[in-house]
Amino acid sequence: MVHAVKTDKNISKRFRWIDPFQEGWSIFKESILGKIGLTLLIIFALMALFSFIPPQIDPMYHPMTGVDPEISHSTGPSARHWLGTDFMGRDLFSQLLAGARVAFMVGVSAAFMSIFLGTAIGMIAGYSGKGIDTLLMRLADMIMVMPTLLVILILSSLFGQLNIWTIVLIIALFRWPGVSRVIRAQTLSLKQRPFIEAARVAGASHLRIIFRHIMPNVLPLSFLYMTFRVTSAIIIEAALAFLGFGDPGTVSWGMMLQWVWKTGHMFNAPYWLLPPGICISLITLSFYMLGRAMDEVLDPRLRKEEGAG
Amino acid sequence: MINDKKKPILEIKNLSKVYRTKRSIFGDSGNDVIALDRISFKIFEGEIFGLVGESGSGKTTAGRLIVKLEEPAEGKIYLENVDLTGLKGKGLRAFRRKVQMIFQDPYQSLNPQLSVLNTVSEPLTVHKIGNGKTRQGLVRQAMKSVGLSPPDDYLHRYPHQLSGGQRQRVAIARAMVLNPRFVVADEPTSMLDASISAQIFNILSDMREKLDLTILFITHSLAAARYLCDRIAVIYRGHLMEMGPAEEVIRNPKHPYTQALIDALPKFGDCGDIKHYGTLLRADSEALGGAGCPFYPRCRVAHRTKCCTGMPRLEEISDSHLVACYYALPGSEIVTEGDACFYAT
Question: Which of B100, B109, B157 has its CB closest to that of A194?
């Protein structure tokens, strides 16, 4: 008996911080959108993971530099090249896998940075109020009305070809205002809640209130917005690459599309055109669906009623 | 009386608080809301002082001013003879250690993301008292004293896993863990049902005995105030109307507003043997523009000219029983005509 109580206590201690996630997961599982999104995402993640394998098998499968010595023009799918080759004999399948890796890299890192900025700025603006709030929010407005793609196009035509990480950084710098508005609104409402006042009465400093009391309450929202930001970052990178302003040193899906178009294979090489196009659509769709499902987890009002009578 | 030999721990002098509504750009002033209008009182060491009033009477504002969640527009608050206005740095930290607050709504006053242990130990962490181990010991002790025992069953729970009464106990434990000198309890039971309320009252009362605590108990219920408090002050629209020992104020109310509050208490059975004062006008008469008694528009016994021109001062009518009404002064009896029960139904 005593022993049973003890283990029970241990469990509650060890799992106490995973608990909300488990609860969220059980709601997430019910959502069809979430399941589809997650499945797609796992497929893409596996693609990104396996992108390291083809170059190990044979250097000709290297997505950027590997050229099949026997092929000097675009060929259709074959046993040797599952999706065919591009205009100079590079393997399209290994390019597609490498593209998945780049998409994840760009999407997740840009989204993470913009979420980090947006959450920090939103919390500071919402919590401090008055002048700082006005200043930060007008700055957010100014950045929000700037078309990201256009600005990056102008920057890259000014400075020549941009490195992929520079592109990521610029996307992050232009994509935080939306998040910060939401986080600010949430912070404003949290700030009025009695538990914040209770912390003040206990003597907590502003920093402590922000990090200990406000941040845990806005982070779920930040993560929700992160999934939407991933989508937009991937699309912006693909568009840039397709327009010829991508990083020439990386093989992204946008880059592949650009090569199709540039070499005039647009209408006679569907095996080359379709895979990257479909992949871009599906990965953005999967992140979007994941976001919607998480929305459902975080916002009880969106949940389906269960036999409430 | 209880407070004869005691010295005051908290002294409030001419405290005012005005909430400004936003002005339009054309310069005409919005309606400023006067939440507190120059109130003064003292709270003596070791007593439970009840501040009773209806919604919007400014009782919560007074509590918030005392714990420095807001700054007064005018007037001074002294805690143990230290002026609270403009308290900063070290002084403010020392003050935060001495004064705690229990909030009205236990569903809102606990951070949903923090476990009970983290919630209750937060004041200790903030004031750097003890280390991890000793803090947990203090937390356990505080939780035991509010009736959350055994504490281990609750330490790692989150607010959503607790009932309303348990949450309020956690909130009380958080306020008590620092061993404060003075606690403001802002309607701690208004969100709880009657039996739980009684338990909370007993906890507060025990705490006072054990910790040599002084409590400002803010409530809308005269019954709760009578049950718990040594002295009561009745507040209406930012003005103190009547103040005195709890039994005296309730047995022998002098102010028409206090009488109206007592009339308003629900009673069982017929109202035959219970005294009705019938001082509340059913409909408000014309609104008051000037400096008259705030209760004048709803007061049945009010004098047409006297009451609407000047606010009566809070004056002592008997031993430590203070009333702000012209009719309460010795020599001027309130004359109620007709069937008082009629007005009270």
Answer: B109
b/e per residue, B136-174, with b = 16+ CB within 10 A?
bebbbebbebbbbeebeebbbbbbeebeebbbbbbbbbb
Q: What is the pLDDT of residues A151-167, one digit of tens each?
A: 888 888 888 778 889 98
Q: How far is A108 from chain B (nearest CA, A)?
A: 26
Region A30-46+92-301: CATH code: 1.10.3720.10
Whether residue B292 contacts residue B37, with contact meaning beta carbons closer than 8 Å, is answered with: no
- Put simply, whether the predicted model's pTM sits higher than 0.90 gets the answer no
| Best of B68, B90, B111, B157 to mutate (most A CBs within 10 Å, chain A) | B111
CATH superfamily of B8-115+180-245: P-loop containing nucleotide triphosphate hydrolases (3.40.50.300)
pLDDT, tens only, A169-216: 999 999 899 899 999 999 999 998 889 999 999 888 899 999 989 998
Q: Judge: B122–A199 Cβ closer than 8 Å, yes or no.
A: yes
Residue type, B196: I
Q: For residue A268, give every residue at least 6 positions away whose Cβ sits within 8 Å of its Cβ, in sequence order, or none.
A: none
In chain A, residues with a C-beta closer than 8 Å to the C-beta of B158 are 16, 19
Give the Cα separation of B76 and B93 in Å (integer). 19
Q: Is the ipTM of this complex over 0.90?
A: no
Q: Does A198 sit within 8 Å of B101, measured CB to CB? A: yes
